[in-house]
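Recall the central idea of this unit: under ordinary conditions, the amino acid sequence of a chain determines the structure it adopts. In this exercise we apply that idea directly, starting from the sequence alone.
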Amino acid sequence: MGKFSIIGLKVVLAVILAGTLFVQLFMIPMILIHESPSNGTDKFFQASFLSYLLLAGLIIETCVYSVWKLATRVKRGTVFDPASLGYVTTIIIAFMIGAVATFALGAIFAASTEIAPGVVLLVGGAGVLMIGISIIVLVLRQLLEQAAMTEAQAAALRTELGGVI
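Accordingly, the structure predicted from this sequence is:
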């Protein structure tokens, strides 16, 4: 990656982080203050949805942090270090937690007669999408692992060749 693409990525990540923090710190409390459902069922659905939004924000923030660290490693030329695998694993786990939370929210919505079945289907589709993303990132992690092994083997061969010469 070039210098400008890493800067561009970090600008996008900063905007995503700012938006997520805005939702968590301002929007969710404003909804809690200004929206007061009349019955217990509506309160349960509101609490479930707002809890989901809070968790989704934490997941997004975790992924932003991990991608930021990986971009920094790319810039420094150390992305093929085995330590990079931990950041990728964090992203995989975050998306799996997000998928489980999304399916749980879908199950809560499915129990209601107030929520349209299409909304439940959309939430379930979002959960499947998150599983798909985590599988794609898992495959990319395996590719990174192979590249890190190849890099280590090349370094060992360079050292051995340097000793021979």
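The mean pLDDT is 91.
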